[in-house]
Structures are given as structure tokens and as C-alpha cells.
Amino acid sequence: MSMRKKLTILLTVLALLYALTLTAFAAGPNGTLSVQLYSWNQHTYTPASAEVVKLTLNGDPLSGDVPAMIQGGRTLVPVRLVGEALQAQVLWVQQTGQVILTKGEDVIVLTLDSATAIVNGVSTPLPDGVPAQVVGYDGADRTMIPLRFVSETLGAQVEWDQATYTAHLTAELTETAPEAPEEEPETPSQEPEVPADAVRITGMSWSDGTLTIATDQAPNCKVTDLGDRVAIDFLDTVLSEDFTGCTASDTYLSDVRWAQHGADFYPGSDYTVRFVLDLAAGATAAGNLTITTTLTGVSVTTHGASETAPTVSINPQDYAIVIDPGHGGDRPGACYEGIMEKDIDLAVSLKLVSILQNQGFQVIMTRSTDVEIGLYERADLANAAGADVFVSLHSNAAENRPDYQGIYTYYHPSSNRGARLAQAIQTPLCQITGGLDRGIKDADFVVLRETDMCAVLVEMGFMTNHEELMNLTDDSYQQLLAQGIAQGIVDYLTAEAQANA
Q1: What tens digit of pLDDT does each residue of 336-384 get?
Q2: Are 393 and 458 in contact (CB under 8 A)?
Q3: pLDDT (tens digit, 9 = 90+) per residue, 183-204?
Q4: Is the pLDDT reported for residue 4 higher than 60?
Q5: CA dist 147 to 50, 158, 382, Å?
Q6: How many whole angstroms separate alpha carbon 37 and alpha carbon 141?
Q7: How far, in Å, CA of 324 to CA of 322, rounded?
């Protein structure tokens, strides 16, 4: 080998070593982490590395079980760590993969894996397109959000120290009054006292492929797909003293188990209740379960993987849809031949949600169990979630006209969008079900007037007509109703997207 060639090889090796040295020194001063990035849409984890970021708030260190980190050139932080430190309320909506932060009049809605947020009702691109995302580290999964975007929207200032990879947050916070010291210290108890406002699981039931876990207030849930089973964790939650469980099994679900855990289960949650759903052989969480969180608990519905559904040419993940089953609880609605309207409305709604979620849409239900929800609460929930479409389902009645049949769809008289959505639903709904088309009408209903988004109310048929009542209670006809409404929603969103292109 010639001297020139040896020199060339030596210089190449030295250059490689120099480059590797620069790469090592380029890592952040706080080190790197091996993490798992979770795809909300694909239900898969991808290994990755991330540089660690330190946080301070008003000069004090701010840290949690999963540290802040850099991903995609942006600093991501655990949503509850920073959101609650800045005195914002944090709501997790499992069925849509959305995090809602509320502070004063400011409302931020972040959707997992979406590069767009909704701030006070306005769609806003996230810096560099880096979305909120789930990151797994050291056995814990946390929802991570863009630090600067969220903090500054909540009124904080963010300063970056490049030398130490530290983000310094400054914010005006409301001070809480210190508790008066006790005259004599008490012996500490082994477990923290359960606060009066803790969420309590009050009951559990299984009926026709739906498992219902009832709570006395809106729960904070974390759902984890573990392959052959699914874990549903209720944070800051206890089982009520009179809680009674039940068995649950069918083609897709083999068993359900539950247990009360303490502070060692989730850092920051003194009490956690975990439900474990064991899947039957061949079943998957993504294909055979629909898990819905509402203001009064969680429902899990089992279903086949193949459902008749509309063809979608738009990106479903760009849209959030609120489905509102009419009545509920002590307000049963119309009641004929021993059949209550609230039960029909809920049954069709659950089928509709299943179709839309299987297509990839983000769907929220105002109720998924037999509970009473106020009309204004229904609208408030839809507004807080920044939904694109609101559809309320009802069953009609005409006491003095038992011969009346047919389907109506209502919209608010002030909404041109509502009229378009009403017609978009009315046409395929009547075609698919064969129901009598009584057209669309305007009405000043609360849920149509108080919702900020495009909203309609569907009257699916007359309970006062025996033939139509039998249809409304028939499972296969309910599926047709759900398919027709789903097709109308997709038709409307597709037409709006094309018109705005």
C-alpha cells in the first residue's frame, strides 16, 4: 500500500472520529432518554431518543415522573405537570384523544398527533407542526404538549437557557392561603385521607355487549392497550362503599377485573382504580372495543371489526363530532307501550359512534349511560371540546295522530350551516331506512341555539305509531338509522371541505 493511500485512510478515520466527537458533544447538557413515541392513530410504539430539558416556575424547579424533553426541535412537557402548575384545569377526553386546558376565559384543545390546536374556538397551527403526543418512559405513559405554545397561551412567559437546556417559566399565580398550624401534631396515618371531592365509582353493569362503569362525577381516565387485555385507570378515584361489581363476557371479552390502588400506582394520584378487560382469543382493542368517557363514567361496547360505514375521502382525524343521545335518567322522554325514548336514543347513538370511530373520526358523547344531562351542559361540553359537528338524536310522538310516521331533521333558524347539515343527513337517512321523508325544519331548541358549531337534531320516527315504534326498537333498523346519519355527516363534511378548498 502506498504512503499516499495510507495517509488518505488515516485522514478519513480521523475525520470520522472528529465527527463522532462533535455529535457526542452536541447532546444536551442534561443527557438523553430512551423513550417510546405512541401513535394514537396506529396504536403503535416507536423507539426514540430525546434530550432532557429542565424546568423552573417562578424560580423553583418543576419536575415530574416523565421529564420535559426535546422532540422535533420543540420542548414537550407533561400536560398535567405544567397545566396544573399554571393553575389551568386539565380535562382528558379519551374517545377523541383530546386534552382540554381551561383557565379563566381561555380554552385550549389539543388533539393527539394533530399539528393544529383550537384556542378559544379558533383553529391554530402548532409551531413547526409538532403535536401533542403520548410518550412512554420508564414504565409510564404521559401526554406531552408543546411547552412555549401552551404556557404563553395561559399567560406565562418562557425564557430558554441554551447553556443548561433549561426553560424558565414566569407566571402570576393565585396564592392559596396557608393552613393554620395545629396546636398539637397528629400521628400521620398510613394512607392519605380520601378527599370529599374525590371521584367515586358507584356501580358497574353489563348488558347486551356494553360494560358500564358509573362515577359520581366526570372521571379522569387513562386507557392502555396491553395487547391481550386493556387497562382502564381511574385517577384520583375510589370505589364507593356500596360498590358492587359484575361479570362480563361475550365473543370479544372474556373477563373483567378491578382493584383499588394507592399513591404508588400513579405519581400525583393518591388513589387509582384499575379495571382490566381480558380480551377473548382473536379480539383486539382497536377492532372490537369502543371505549367512551362521559361526565358520568365510562362505557365499553364490544362489536365486530367489520361494520357497514360510509366511504370517507377526507381526513377523519381533522374532525371532532359530538353525538347527543336525547333525554336520560329521570327525563325519559316519550313513553309508549312500555318503551322509553331515552333507551332508543342511546341505542342508536352507540351504534352511530361505533361507525364514526371505526372510520377514524374523533367522537364525543354527551352521555353513554342512562343519566340525566342538562340541555345547557350538553352544549357546554360540545363547545369546550371545540367540536365541528353536533348531532342530537330523538324519537318523536304525536299523541292524537297514531297514523303519523316519518323522519324530521331540525336546525337553528340562524344557521345556514345547520340547514346544510340537516339536509345532508335527512337524504341518506330516509333512503337507507326507507322511512318517510318529512323534510328539514328550523327550531329554536337549546342544543341548537347554544352550540357554537354546526348543530342538528334528528327525530328518527314516531313512537306513537306502532309500526314505527317496532322499527325503532329493532336492532337491525337501529343500525340502518346509524348508517344513514353517519353517511349524512360524512357527506356534509366532505362538501364543506371541497367548498373551502
Answers
A1: 989 999 999 999 999 999 999 888 888 999 888 888 888 998 998 899 8
A2: yes
A3: 333 333 344 567 777 889 999 9
A4: no
A5: 15, 8, 26
A6: 9
A7: 6
> Which helix (H) or strand (E) covers residue 67, if one does?
none
Interaxial angle between packed helices 416-433 and 475-499, expressed in degrees from 0 to 180 and rounded to the nearest 10: 140
Q: 384: closest CA among 155, 109, 103, 153?
A: 109
> What residues have CB less than 8 Å from 121, skipping those under 6 apart?
107, 383, 386, 452
The grid cell for 358 is 371505526
Q: How far is CA 5 from CA 11, 14, 15, 357, 367, in A?
A: 10, 14, 15, 64, 76
Taking the C-alpha atoms of residue 56 and residue 454, their distance in angstroms, rounded to an integer, is 42
C-alpha angle 38/42/47, rounded to 5°?
A: 35
C-alpha cell at 307: 361494520
pLDDT in tens, 166-184: 999 999 887 654 443 333 3
265: left (phi over 0), alpha (psi -120 to 50) or beta: alpha
* pLDDT in the model for residue 384: 86
> Which of 341, 459, 468, 496 is flagged as catalytic?
459
Ranking 2-6, 153-157, 187-191, 372-376 by mean pLDDT, the lowest is 187-191
CA–CA separation, 237 and 194 (whole Å): 9
> What global pTM score does this model have?
0.45
Name residues whose C-beta falls within 8 Å of residue 284's C-beta, 6 or more positions apart in sequence.
305
Is 459 annotated as catalytic?
yes
Which DSSP helix (H) or strand (E) runs through 276?
A: strand 272-279
